[in-house]
């Protein structure tokens, strides 16, 4: 139907799908393998015109469910470290990128079939959700995230480091990274808040 729903997870291991009239979607699988303490991403990554649900659980699993609550092939993925931030999902043409960061200072990019495309390690912790922005005006967005040592990292979705990255901040970032054309030059600027 054309009405939007609210989808969220809880520390009681449940995912809720709530209609605009506050009623729950019937027949939806609610229970995950462990508590859900990070955010959820919704995106139609299987091209069935319904959004998939991408989330992590406290037992270090990456999950992708379809709209019926069934797990997509290749998932869940069990990691060696807990997830640090909510997921980010990109779909450009037929390329799906499922992006997570971990508590052991890694950014992971997964394909739709659950295979790991790229792993990028940092020297310090990652606490802010990665941002996507197409700064080169080509067909693919780039990935940007900060680490607690005051660096802003920039990668392609293939895992290549962007020219001039990482950027060095005066102090560690205290906010998510956002992009906006603040000076009307038709190019987006990177905006992030720091400790100082």
- How big a fraction of the residues is strand? 35-45%
Major sheet strand order: 3-4-5-6
Q: Main sheet?
A: 4 strands, antiparallel
Radius of gyration: 17 Å
The unreliable regions are none
Q: What are the secondary-structure elements, in order, as H or E?
A: EEEEEEEEEEEEEEEE
Give the termini separation: 48 Å
Distinct helical segment count: 0
As a percent range, the share of helical residues equals under 10%
* Shape field: globular
Q: How many DSSP E strands?
A: 16
Helix/strand class: mainly beta
Q: Could you tell me the mean pLDDT?
A: 92
Tell me about this structure.
- This protein has 196 residues and is mainly beta.
- Helix content is 0%, strand content 35%.
- The chain is built from no helices and 16 strands.
- It has strands spanning 6-9, 15-18, 41-43, 52-57, 61-65, 77-78, 88-92, 95-101, 106-110, 116-121, 131-133, 142-147, 151-155, 167-168, 178-180, 189-191.
- It has a four-stranded antiparallel beta sheet with strand order 3-4-5-6, with no helix packed on it. The protein has a four-stranded antiparallel beta sheet with strand order 7-8-9-10, with no helix packed on it. The chain has a four-stranded antiparallel beta sheet with strand order 11-12-13-14, with no helix packed on it.
- Strand 11 and strand 12 form a beta hairpin.
- The protein is globular.
